[in-house]
Specification:
It is built from 7 helices and 10 strands. By secondary structure, the chain is α+β, with helices and mostly antiparallel strands. The strands form 2 sheets. Strands 5, 6, 7, 8, 9 and 10 form a 6-stranded antiparallel sheet that branches. The protein has a 4-stranded mixed sheet with strand order 1-2-3-4. Strand 7 and strand 8 form a beta hairpin. It starts with a helix and ends in an 11-residue tail after the last helix. The mean pLDDT is 95.
Amino acid sequence: MKAVAEELGLEVVQPGSRAELWELAASRAPFDVGVVVAFGMILEQELLDLPRAGFLNVHFSLLPRWRGAAPVAHAILAGDEETGATVMSVDAGLDTGPIVAAQPLPIDPEETAGQLTVRLADLGARLLDDVLEDWCEGNIDSVPQDEAAATWAPVLTTDAAKLDFAAPAVEVLRRIRAFNPKPGAWAMHSDRLKIWAARPDEGERTPGVGVLEIEGDLVTVGTGLGTVRLETVQPAGRRAMSAADWANGMRSDAPTTLS
C-alpha cells in the first residue's frame, strides 16, 4: 500500500507510537473519516472523536466471530467453512464496534491462511468502497454486535505452531494451512522441520503417531487418526523443498518419527 501511495504522489507517514499517531491526526483535524486495516494499536476515544464520521475498520472475519489479531488463521484452525469481511465503526474496544457492512466468503478446504487473506483483502477493499461515501454522508446505520456470539483470535506464536501428531490428521492439516505463511507449522526431526504443505493420505501405511514412512516419492506420517502425506518441508537453515527431496537427502540413521 505504501508503494502504491507513493506512486500516486500521496503523503506517507508511519507513526510508531500512540503519541505520534495522535499528533499526526490532530494536525489534520477536522477530517471526514479514518480507515484502519490490520492495525496494531488500540485507538483511544479522544482520537476516534477527531474525524467527522469516526473511524472504520476492515476486519477479515464475520464479526463478532474471530475478534482479534489473527482471524484468518483461527477460522481455518476451527474448521470453519465460511468467513468473510466486515466493515465496522471503531470504538475503544477490540473489534467490538457496530457493524456497517459484512459479506461472507467460503473457505476453500485446501487454501492456506496466506491465500485466504489475499481473497479477503480484495473482498474487504470492495466492501469498503461500496459503503464509504454513504457512511460519511450519514446514509448508513450500523448494527451492534452480538456479544454472546463473540469468539477470540489471539496472536499466533511459534510455540503454538508446533504440530501434535497425536491429533487426528484433519486437525494436523488445518494447522499446517493456518500457520502458512506465518509463523510456519513445525515438528522436530533431529532439528526443527517446518511443514509448509501436506495432504491426507488414504494408502495403507504403518499406524503410529508421528511414524515416518518413505516409499519412492511418497513421504507419509501417522497421526492419532489417519495419515498425512508431506509435500513441502523446510529443514532448519535450508530452503523449502519437496518432501521427497528432503527424504532422499536424509542420513540413514535419521529419526523415523516426527515429534
